[in-house]
Amino acid sequence: MQSAPQTRPDWAAIDTVLLDMDGTILDLRFDNYFWNELVPAHYAHVNGLAVEDAKARLVPVFRAKQGTLDWYSVAYWSRELALDLATLKHEAREHIAWLPEAEAFVLRLRALGKRLALVTNAHPDTLALKDRQLDFHGHFDAVYSSHPFGAPKEDIEFWARLSTVEHFDPARTLFVDDSLPVLRAARAHGVRWIYAIARPDSTRPARPMDEFPAVDALRELMP
Fold this sequence. Notes:
alpha/beta
């Protein structure tokens, strides 16, 4: 477990809470399994490769798109890999799950009257699939995918565009994410209360996150 955050949130000074989806409220175990195991296995089968050879071929292909909207698009990767990834993701949907006590955290903030927005890089189709599986949309006042904004959350331009539709005061906003590039962009936009999730996948150990106050899970920030 990470040590206690360097600065505990002062909930009286926070009006708006922006939460990432995968690795913050939802267990990244599903995405790691899907992209690191299931997709390479199907790619290997279609292309007559050993699974390890398929993984070796896909790693640099995936890496080249990190930090872009294409990286998060099932439609893009379906075209690039000649696989029906939407169907494959639908068939694997039972692996989609909340991180421990994340739903309780969200419901607690609702009870306190905080404005809650889900802010994700997931493509709208992936967001819809996960919502159908867990029915979390109604827990939030607003839900945003970065794709309609034309920039991923890693890009400072995303935050400028988000602020035109979600009128939050950065000085009175808390944001939680598991991605350092995303957290840096939020900091550059002036968001005051920023926390990193150190254990986005419940089956893997916590990662060192020294640049921002870090918690293993949202429950550690519970009011």
